[in-house]
Amino acid sequence: MVAFLFFMTGIAIVLYLNQTPNQPRERDYAFAGSFYAFAIWVGMGVAGIWRLIVNAVESKKKRPAASTVDSEETPSQRRTGIIAVSIACLIGLIVPLQMVSQTWDDHDRSGRYAARDFGMNYLSSVEPNGIIFTNGDNDTFPLWYAQEVEGFRTDVRVVNLSYLTTDWYVNQMKYPTYDAAAIDMMATPDKYAHDKRQFNYFLTPDTAKVNALSALKALYSDDSNKNSWGLSEFRYPNMYIPVDKEVVVKEGRVSEDEAAAVEEYIDVNLNDVPDGGLSLSNVISLDMIATNAANGWKRPIYFAMTIPDDYYLNLSPYMRSTGMAYEVGPIKNHDFDGYTIDVNTDKAYDNVVNKFRWGGIDKAKSADDIYLDETVRRMVTTTRSTILRLATSLYNEGVGAEIYLNNDSASMDEAQREKIHKFIVDRYTKAQNVLDLMTEKLPEYTSPYGIQIGAQVADLYDRLGLVMDRKDDIEKAQEILLHEIELYTGYILYFQSLSPAQYSTLPRDDRYIHDTYYLQLLQQYAEAGGDAESLMKDLQARGVNFSRYLRAAEEALPQSIDENL
Length: 565
Hints:
Shape: globular
Distance between the termini: 68 Å
Strand order of the largest sheet: 2-1-8-10-9-11
Number of strands: 11
């Protein structure tokens, strides 16, 4: 019976669901019933050990069989039973104790507050009374926990885009929660209830550029076009959101110094969305943004930086990072390349330096002091990425101001030159502060740098060392690069032991390490002033075969490396 329960709640579930081996996360909770069945077996096993011991002891005493029937338990039998139970329990404890001895470090979460603190970092990136769009578990539930349990930043309204596809959740957005006001929108329940407008196709789109609110009004109208399946049509995907410059400055969406860069409107052209239409979640989030703008930009609106680009409504050129969130605003990044989102350096710097929390990772003195599972390590990489982006933007602003000063200083008076010079020093100093903060609070020994992150950190340290004449920064860049090279040398030695057929099965990231990244680290170390010649000799002595794959990159390598091939 127990075996049947174990089968039906374990193996049978896998067969019935045809479950694939690769899952987005551990799915062991789906087999909880089989764990209960196995626990019954464990209990039966302990009882079985007890019975075996009792039988073994009694058989040695050679008691007559008749005496064991309908007879009262003697003191000797009682003592034997107690001893047998104790031994059985001790034997049974061996298994969990052995498991604890091997896996305690993988399950010990003492001192780790990453989920709470990183959730707070999202909220800290949002200005008062803001709205932040989230999507997945890891960028939603920690935020809700921080608000519901810790009472932290309850003025921020967290809007989960996955839930925004349901009418009940859209309805919830119309009501205030704690210190967060209700969200204004044009849509009314009769327009989206009972799965209405779950998807809105671009059937015969009009190319004319129209106000986003007008496009939404046409969609919500009772006589809006529908296809043969009764699905609504979004007629005007080429939209814009008008911008009142005075209002956005007054409400603090942009500073007075940035007023000249404010656009007349935010371009929202959705003609090229891959699905050929908009889901209810897309429509409602667009509605919230456009209605907020029409109401005078009373609330700042953000997208969590971990949301996939497909949810951005093509607003990426109008978003700027403020830490762990991207704020939607009327300033366009004219250098937008389809990938890189600009950084509001002053806001982001204040948030990162003065408001970010570090989940207990900053307290660890060694890797053994704290355990970070794969999910937490990904969040550490995400946090490092946003901090590195901020540091890079600060550095670039300093470089840009320095170029401007060098080119136009003759036309400036002394006060102007002094002001720009102070700005340059300020940008470089803040970039330095941010990098130092990252390496101090999220040390590499607790979670290794992701691919390229280590090289980028070292590169920025090297650049700052040159412009600020800081030898310590250059040495730190070399130290980081040496550590990265040491880490990936183990990868290279393994990759070079594979046959061509085996190598072809490697994931893309592994092939990138072998074919590109390792060489990049070596070249970067040489350019940072490291002793490339000694390093190359040491690596070759340890078995790294550069000639196997370096020939194609010989021209890109420094002469000091090239001579050692």
